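In the laboratory, one determines a bound structure by crystallizing the protein with its ligand and collecting diffraction data. In a computational setting the workflow is compressed into a single prediction: the sequence and the ligand go in, and a structural description comes out. We illustrate the idea with BIS(adenosine)-5'-pentaphosphate.
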Amino acid sequence: MNIILLGPPGAGKGTQARHLVDTRDMIQLSTGDMLRAARTSGTEMGQKVAEIMDSGKLVTDEIVIGLIEEQLTTQSGSGFIFDGFPRTLAQADALAALLTKLGQSLHTVIEIRVDDEALVQRISGRFTCGDCGEVYHDKTKPTSVDGKCDNCGSTNMVRRADDNADSLRTRLMEYYKKTSPLIGYYYAKGDLRPLNGLADISEVTASVEAILG
Ligand code: AP5
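The predicted complex, in structure-token form:
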């Protein structure tokens, strides 16, 4: 079962993807995580995308499609969760072609709907475990012990460079200009399943489970 989690920055795509990885043995393909890993490993591509990511703009289709193709052809499991990909119509077409080439298909596209004000709150309070990637929030999902990851016990908590007001404005603009047309695209294909992303994390998880069956 291959699914797309579609939604604006801070909608909760990564949070829900991690739940599906834990409970369904699915593989999370987050292009944001892949690009951040490329940055920290200091590759030429990582250096090229660092400035673009910090500004909140989208990196080129060519780069992200290449990253996804590499993962699709080298990994296997109980299905892929596309988190933060596709983000443009060109990426959506490329994904369809890649899946067809591999004899696979797309099960569903879950659109997580959240209003802009809530997104700002979520992004400004987010922090992540630098070791295992668990996602937290100052108010809605704090760690049980201050500064210590509930999942792996690490105290290496990080905040993203692009989680600031200026960059968020650009990320939202990029979303509305380039990614939101995908809502109509997948609706027309009959693949789109919207849900209320403003609910509590556990309620959103229940909605995702209900869609996936
Ligand atoms: P990426 O890493 O994909 O960032 P994003 O899309 O902006 O999404 P986020 O990771 O910020 O949010 P999320 O929806 O995963 O929310 P989360 O679960 O963390 O991309 C970063 C950059 O990389 C892009 O700007 C671009 O430059 C580049 N890039 C990546 N992919 C690309 C592509 N395909 N093409 C081109 N460029 C690409 O939740 C957010 C917070 O809210 C957390 O603190 C969480 O605890 C909390 N929260 C979650 N759900 C709830 C809830 N229901 N109620 C209350 N709080 C909640």
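The chain is about 50% helix and 15% strand. Keep in mind that any predicted model is a hypothesis to be tested, not a measurement.
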